[in-house]
Amino acid sequence: MAEYKLPKPQKIKKSGNKEVVLVASGDLRLSANQKCWPAQLAMEQSLTSAIESEGYKVRRAHAFDKEQGHGFIASQEQGMQVFSGIDPNAKLIVAEAVWQYSHHVLAGLISHKGPILTVANWSGTWPGLVGMLNLNGSMTKAGVSYSTLWGEKFTDAKFRSNLGKWLSKGTLRHATKHVTSYSKVKVPLKEKKLGTALATQMQQEKAIMGVFDEGCMGMFNAIIPDHLLNPTGLFKERLSQSALYYEASCVSNDEGNAVRQWMEKKGLKFKTGSDHDIDLTNLQILKQCKMYVAALRIADDYGCDTIGIQYQQGLKDLMPASDLAEGTLNNKNRPPVRSRDGSRILYKGEPLPHFNEVDECAGIDGLMTYRIHKAMGQPVENTLHDIRWGDIDKSGSTDEYVWVFLISGAAPPEHFIGGWKGATSVRQPPMYFPNGGGTLKGISKPGEIIWSRVYVENDRLKMDLGRAGVLKLTDKETKRRWEATTPQWPIMHAVTYGVSRDQMMARHKSNHIQVAYAKTAADADKAMFAKAAMADALGMEVAICGSRKNGKPWN
Question: Which residues, in sequence order, are CB contacts of 397 under 8 Å at separation 6+?
Answer without folding.
Answer: 471, 473, 474, 477
